[in-house]
Amino acid sequence: MPCGAWTPGHDPPSCRFCPPQRALPLFLTPDEWSALRLSLLVAGVATLASLLPGLAVAYLLARRDFRGRALVDGLVHLPLILPPVVTGYLLLLAFGRRGLFGAALAEIGIVFSFRWTGAALACAVMGFPLMVRAMRLSFEAVDRKLEQAAGTLGASPAAVFLVVTLPLALPGILAGAVLAFAKAMGEFGATITFVSNIPGETQTLPSAIYTLTQVPGGEAGALRLALISVALSMAALLASEWLARRARRRLGA
Amino acid sequence: MIEVAVRHARGAFVLDAAFTAEGRVTALFGRSGSGKSTLVEVIAGLVRPQHGRVVVDGVTLLDTGAGVRVPVHRRQIGTVFQDARLMPHLSVRQNLLFGRFFARHRPGGPSLEAVADLLGIAALLERRPAGLSGGERQRVAIGRALLARPRLLLMDEPLSALDEGRKAEILPYVARLRDEARVPIVYVSHAVAEVARLADTVVVLEEGRMTACGPAAEILRRGGLFPGRETGEAGALLQLRVAAHDDVFGLTRLDGAPGRLTVPRLALPVGASVRVRVRARDVLVARETPRALSARNVLPGLVTAITPGDGPHARVEIACGDASLVAQVTRLAAHELALAPGLPVLAIVKSVAFDEETIGVVEI
């Protein structure tokens, strides 16, 4: 049904108030492809890069009592409660070209602002609390008596971590990584504030959808990308559920 | 040779114990809360005591005075916990080889096959711990500790989480371990039956303090050392030999220092050594030979001592041959029989008083 406009020259296919009238074209345009590829790249890099720091912080918070623990805990969780725009702005202040660290990093060739690397950084920061939370819970659930037993069998603390703690915490670690990946796929506010919305460089799926909804005739593209987003999120959820179930079965619980 | 001295305060609880033990199995005996487990944790290195010294076979593992503290993973003390603590993500074989991997640079010790045979777990190797019964898990835990090439095996109430049937299933394996594995064992328990079957040396703990320490036969005679329910469990520990079997009536005759004992049929060859605990509460005392008596064991002896207890009981020590029995009788009976040191009496024990709990095989 057309939107009801009666103005001469009203063209339903390009009118942004008319719903799509033809069957949805399923093929992605080159720009949409590039947004999808970029999103996967940004989310993948963000997840992989935050994996080790995430493990370290989660382990510290789960197992160690140190001064400033509450501060670390608070800092990690900050992106969860701050408006994403504020996080993006703070990133701009810190890692922008003339930012606190950005200027120094630019001299050794590491540039974040208006690059896909910046999008990855923003996504990593936004996903970090979710990742740390899941990992920390799984570290806390590892029976410390098993670690003690491993120690009496001759395993050094590092070996205990690698052969006992890590494998036993694996379901939670994977869940944390999947969560962070899913969050990165959907991150919008911080990314667009920090690195803007440059097609082919920083335009990820959410920014592409946003752009498409702002231009006439973009509905079909927006819907296509939205469907892809839904599919990817569902796949991530199912994958994490499957991994967790597999790990649980392996532990015989 | 094990030397342990610990002083450690934890809140209001103070653990203060020092003992030296030589021999294959040293039992740490005491009721729960007596400090046994803390002592075990100190020896294993899981707890850092305020003051302490632990020396095993000449190697100082802990000496707070000299600032020596070998970390847990370098102590080479195989520890078997109450709960088996098997790694749930590893197979039984991987669990067994866990400690062996970290001990790979030290030679010696039994092979996986030998340990699996000794403990009867060869058929379980490819299984996962979650699929094992409690008794099987505990046997795997023992094997795992043994394969780590330990200088000492520390067993912290390894049977307490199991029901009676499973206990009876594992106890013979622990006894075989003592006789075949040649690793000194510290065995923590609150059950007299286990201690009597296994230990050469017994250390008794009560509320953090050591109340007795000495050879098992000597310590187990003293009734007062044991927690309430176990008082009557104390008794004489005798070394005897299987002399003959009677398959018609299902009996076995044992010969030894106290004389001849008739017990239910044992599945042991003639000549085998057994350790028999004669519980004080199972021994009757008579002054004259009773006639037409159902009890099969009537041992002549001399009263050597009478110790009245706080309650209605009294302990009577009777020398039979070269051995000595303990009888728990009422004070009234001791009075009416006019029991006194030097008096010849008969110690009477029913054959059915002997069971799996009181008779164990020992290899001398």
TrEMBL record, chain B:
This is Molybdenum ABC transporter ATP-binding protein. One of its GO terms (cellular component) is membrane. Keywords: ATP-binding, Cell inner membrane, Cell membrane, Membrane, Molybdenum, Nucleotide-binding, Translocase, Transport. It comes from the Bacteria. Residues 1-232 form the ABC transporter domain. Residues 292-358 form the Mop domain. GO terms for molecular function: ABC-type transporter activity; ATP binding; ATP hydrolysis activity; molybdate ion transmembrane transporter activity. Belongs to the ABC transporter superfamily.
